[in-house]
Structures are given as structure tokens and as C-alpha cells.
């Protein structure tokens, strides 16, 4: 299957993408991984992206699209892929349509993870990260440490990242509504969008997504 995963920040796209890709035996292709791989490998596209990033500018769509096309052309993506974080806007979606069409391919589904805005803010603003190891993540509501402000794993100080503060989260949501959300209408016109609730436990959402992709009632 060839799938695009969409949803607001805090919808759990990265987590669901990993589980869905494993269940479907297709590669999980995320924008962040594409950038890191191309930059670390010193590819021409990676060099272009790094130059823009170093200058504090956004990487142009054509560079991002080029990276995605190269990755989708790899042997492990022959039978499908799951795109996470790409396309990010309508122009990228249109470019993806053209690229797939040129290869005689098409998307099978666009999975839209739906989460109420207040829940997104609660999820992200409640996160607390360990200063010693950023992989140690807690939450003031959903995954509380035994001692407030102290990491259960190593005893390090827990803190709230600047981009997790409520004001910043709401700005990120504004960007999502303005730039990315319109791709849902773009794909609805093609009959590709499958919308599911991303509320609940991770495995519940995964089962819901698998059922929806299979055409069953989610």
C-alpha cells in the first residue's frame, strides 16, 4: 500500500507510522529522516537543504520533493510506503501526484488522524523531558514521574521544552491549519481520505487505522 499519514502536531503520527509500517511490511518515510539521511550522506540534495537550513531559511519544496522521490524509488519501497510529514502543503501534494503518475503508481489511501485541538495542546504542553537523556519522556497527566520534576530512570531534572509551551503549540496548530490541512480536501476530491479518531491507547488507534485501511468500519 502507498499511504500518506496526516494529522495535527500531537496526533501521534510518528508512533502510529512506525506500527502501521511494521504491520503492513512497508517502509516508514518521514521528512525528518529524509533530511538527516541526505545531509549525513552528503548527497547533492542534502547539501542544498543544509545550505538553506544553515542560513535559517525554509528548505524549498523542490528539494524536499526530490528527497522523497529518491527514497520512494528505493527497492524496499517497491511494494509501497508510508509517508509521514510529506506532503506538507498542496503544492507538495500535487508534485507527489505527478511523480507517482509518471511511475505508473498512485496512492491507495490518505489516513487522517483526528484529534480535538484542546487534546493536542494537553498532550504536547504536558510533556516533560529529562535533561540528561531526551528519550526519557514523561507527562503531567498521562505518564507522571514518581517524584515531580525528577526522571524515574536516571534522577535527572525534568523540564518543558520551549516548543512544547501552550502558546507555541497553538502557533504550530495555526501553521498546520493554514498550510497542511488543505491537503485533506485535495485528497478528498480523489476519494482517498480515511479519517479515524486518534484518541485512546496507541494499540487501539493502530487497530482502528488498520481496520479503516482495510475498508472496515473503524
Polypeptide structure, described:
With 218 residues, the chain is of the alpha/beta class. It has a single domain, classed as Rossmann fold. It is built from 9 helices and 8 strands. Strand 5 and strand 6 (137-139) form a beta hairpin. The model has no long low-confidence stretch (mean pLDDT 93). ATP binds at residues 10-15, 127, 137-138, 200.
Structure at a glance:
It contains nine helices and eight strands. By secondary structure, it is of the alpha/beta class.
Strand tally is 8
Largest sheet: 5 strands, parallel
Domain tally = 1
Strand coverage percent: 5-15%
State the CATH architecture.
3-Layer(aba) Sandwich
Can you give the helix content as a percent range? 40-55%
Please write the CATH class name. Alpha Beta
Annotation field: number of helices: 9
Mean pLDDT comes to: 93
What is the element string, with H for helices and E for strands? EHEHHHEHEHEEEHHEH
Strand line-up in the sheet with most strands: 2-3-1-4-8
Low-confidence stretches: none
What would the principal axes of the Cα set say about the shape?
globular
CATH superfamily: P-loop containing nucleotide triphosphate hydrolases
**Structural class category:** alpha/beta
Distance between the termini: 18 Å
Q: What Rg, in angstroms, do the CA atoms define?
A: 18 Å
Q: If you consult CATH, what is the topology?
A: Rossmann fold
Task: Give the helices and strands, then pairings.
Blueprint lengths: L1 E5 L6 H12 L3 E3 H11 L2 H11 L6 H12 L8 E4 L5 H13 L6 E6 L2 H9 L1 E4 L6 E3 L18 E2 L6 H15 L1 H7 L4 E5 L4 H12 L5
Parallel strand pairs: 1-3, 1-4, 2-3, 4-8
Antiparallel strand pairs: 5-6, 5-7
Helix pairs in contact: 1-9, 2-3, 2-4, 3-4, 4-5, 6-7
Amino acid at each position: 500500500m502507498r499511504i500518506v499519514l496526516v494529522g495535527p502536531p500531537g496526533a501521534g503520527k510518528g508512533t502510529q507510522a512506525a506500527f502501521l509500517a511494521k504491520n503492513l511490511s512497508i517502509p516508514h518515510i518521514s521528512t525528518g529522516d529524509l533530511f538527516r539521511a541526505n545531509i549525513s550522506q552528503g548527497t547533492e540534495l542534502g547539501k542544498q537543504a543544509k545550505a538553506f537550513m544553515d542560513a535559517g531559511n525554509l528548505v524549498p519544496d523542490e528539494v524536499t520533493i526530490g528527497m522523497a522521490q529518491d527514497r520512494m524509488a528505493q527497492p524496499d519501497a517497491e511494494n509501497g510506503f508510508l509517508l509521514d510529514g510529506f506532503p506538507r502543503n498542496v503544492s507538495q501534494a500535487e508534485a507527489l501526484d505527478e511523480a507517482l503518475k509518471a511511475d505508473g503508481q498512485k496512492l491507495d489511501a490518505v489516513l487522517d488522524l483526528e484529534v480535538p485541538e484542546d487534546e493536542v495542546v494537553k498532550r504536547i504542553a504536558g510533556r516533560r523531558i529529562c535533561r540528561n537523556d531526551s528519550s526519557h519522556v514523561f507527562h503531567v497527566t498521562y505518564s507522571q514521574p514518581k517524584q515531580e520534576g525528577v526522571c524515574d530512570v536516571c534522577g535527572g531534572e525534568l523540564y518543558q521544552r520551549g516548543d512544547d509551551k501552550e502558546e507555541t503549540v497553538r502557533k504550530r496548530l495555526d501553521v498546520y491549519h493554514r498550510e497542511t490541512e488543505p491537503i485533506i480536501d485535495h485528497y478528498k476530491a480523489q476519494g482517498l481520505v480515511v479519517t479515524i479518531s486518534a484518541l485512546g491507547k496507541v494499540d487501539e488507534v493502530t487497530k482502528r487505522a488498520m481496520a479503516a485501511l482495510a475498508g472496515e468500519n473503524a
